[in-house]
Design brief:
Immunoglobulin-like, alpha+beta, 9-stranded mixed β-sheet
Length: 298
């Protein structure tokens, strides 16, 4: 019996902000930053969150399109929304100390990458980071917004069928000043965004993607099986998994291996590269429980 349900994907963005101290105090960072496992006392988190809330400041990160071709240029828009009646400035550099012992710290843009490349061979995971200078001050007028734009280089598929990129931008150290207030020093961690890269023009075109309906009949013989399965799972994970399990016996060679990789990616299970374990799991109580958990996520 078919176990299907509508699949909706949340577009909500979470913000990780670390706000430190006034410029005249210590510049020691006590916050959660990408790549760090240190914790922040609850009262410190509340105080920093309260500061931004009082000034009506919000942060988000967005991309033009979620599904792109490998050679298609992409730009991350790291948006700062100033809900305060005072101008907000993020400065490229900060000088502290007195002459002749004064020193200057320049703001940098750190980009953290998590790359998962899927092919018939399996999943290849990589993590990396890069640093760029913050090239100019960011002035945000009262009750307005401005953006730091970060260009993302083209992605090499390396014989992969589908690549998932999770990217987070962190700006540090940055001097933050609201007009008429003391300068403060902080680290700004924008929320991560996900980009899907594949060689399927129908999935990456705005007009074409809206017409793609791979459920309930996913064309397993067409190129890009893994990418199309991931795309379909964004609409309905349960139906996509069910479809792949049902067609497994008829697949051969690389197509079957691609189906196994897609199933492992969507379910988080490692049931090997044989048909019967997957069919048995789907028909079992464990498969029914997995379906129920997926439906509760909606």
């Amino acid at each position: 019996m078919s176990r299907t349900s509508p699949h909706r994907r949340s577009n909500g963005l979470l913000v990780s902000l670390v706000f430190l101290c006034p410029a005249c105090a210590s510049t020691r960072s006590d916050g959660l930053v990408a790549g760090s496992s240190r914790s922040v006392p609850d009262r410190a988190v509340d105080r920093r969150a309260s500061f931004w809330a009082e000034h009506g400041t919000e942060w988000s990160c967005a991309i033009d399109r979620e599904w792109v071709l490998p050679d298609e240029p992409q730009v991350l828009h790291c948006v700062v929304r100033n809900g305060s009646p005072r101008r907000l400035t993020l400065k490229t550099e900060r000088t502290h100390g007195l002459w002749p012992f004064a020193s200057t710290q320049r703001s940098r843009v750190a980009i953290y990458w998590k790359r998962a490349a899927l092919s018939a061979r399996g999943v290849d995971n990589e993590e990396s980071s890069s640093l760029r200078p913050l090239e100019r001050d960011l002035d945000v007028a009262p009750l307005s917004e401005a953006a730091i734009e970060v260009a993302i280089p083209d992605q090499e598929m390396r014989e992969s069928d589908y690549v998932r990129l999770e990217i987070q931008v962190v700006v540090y150290p940055v001097a933050v000043q609201f007009e008429g207030e003391p300068e403060r020093f902080g680290v700004l961690g924008f929320p991560p965004v996900v980009i899907h890269v594949c060689n399927c023009p129908r999935l990456t075109s705005r007009t074409e993607a809206s017409s793609v309906r791979p459920i309930p009949s996913l064309d397993v013989e067409a190129p890009g099986l893994i990418a199309r399965a991931v795309f379909a799972a964004q609409q309905d994970t349960v139906a996509t998994v069910e479809n792949l399990v049902q067609v497994l016996p008829g697949l051969q060679g690389a197509r079957r291996q691609e189906a196994f990789v897609a199933l492992r990616w969507m379910t988080g299970l490692s049931l090997g590269n044989e048909v019967e374990p997957w069919r048995g799991w789907w028909a079992s109580e464990e498969g029914g429980l997995w379906t129920l958990l997926q439906q509760r996520k909606l």
